[in-house]
Fold this protein.
Amino acid sequence: MSEVLKLVRENIQKLTPYSSARHEFKGNADVFLDANENPFETGLNRYPDPLQNTLKIKLSGIKKTDPSTLFLGNGSDEAIDLLIRVFCEPKEDHILIVPPTYGMYKVCADISDVDVRQVQLLTDFQLDVDGILKESNQHSKILFICSPNNPTGNLMAKEDLERLLQDFPGILVIDEAYIDFCPDSSMVSKLSEYPKLVVLQTLSKAWGMAAIRLGIAIASPEIITLLNAVKPPYNINKLTQQQALSFLDKENEMQDFVRRSVEQRAKLSRELSGLNYVLKVYPSDANFLLVKMKDPSFIFHSLIDQGIVVRDRSRQPLCEGCLRITVGTDKENDFLIATLKSLQ
Ligand SMILES: *Cc1c(COP(=O)(O)O)cnc(C)c1O
């Protein structure tokens, strides 16, 4: 049994997946009477491609990886949920998370009744590799790491990720939701070396397609096959597949948007640092800034009074006093700064 298969829950190893009508018939035909669809053309009367092959071929060109290494989910949140359901036996296995981090890993584990072990980041927001390995055993099925990390904004050191890829006993999931803001730091190039690596990406951030709900898991074909076996048969609807295909032609526009965001982030960071109640603006590799200040609750509510919503992260470990602020348009950022200046 392969290294990956040994980590899979027994019921999933034995699973006979649902086989949809569109799955079973693969040839060309003119008359489809196999899926109880409405035969009258509405543009949307047929079930979509369950494995999204056309979209995967397009994405594989952009991500420089083979289509067989791609899984598409209803947002990356679906991939997070499915990974837990494939690998973690409820009440027996656990996942590891490294707070402060994205909230969905724990919520998905809680829903599946899977324990969560937490190993806090170091004070510089980097990984406590020794602490993680000390907490790990044969029931540590998945370690979730977000890089660049939400809410702290920093990339995790590559040497630490590589050490964990070598020594962590389970699956290492690296959530790269913000990687389009620092594309050279992606771990996708390591996939061929590490069969237990899963990289999550999304069209929800830099690509500007949060509304269509399309997340991507990139991993060994063995892991992709497992995710496909467990997913709902038609998890990506046809409208989403169409929109993604047409937006993905505009990679230049996405890169332009990233350039503008990065420029605005630098300006915002400078302006924020000049405010008398701001204690620290943390460096960011993503499209948001974590900002430590004297009275975050007062600032948070004063901003809301002016119609500006930011995220209060002050109750997260290591984030005392911190608000998380997304980089907006030039105009939005100017309004934010003007409002913040008036609160000095
Ligand atoms: C925004 C975000 C996602 C994206 O989730 P989708 O379901 O793809 O919209 C994933 N992970 C992190 C850390 C995020 O911040």
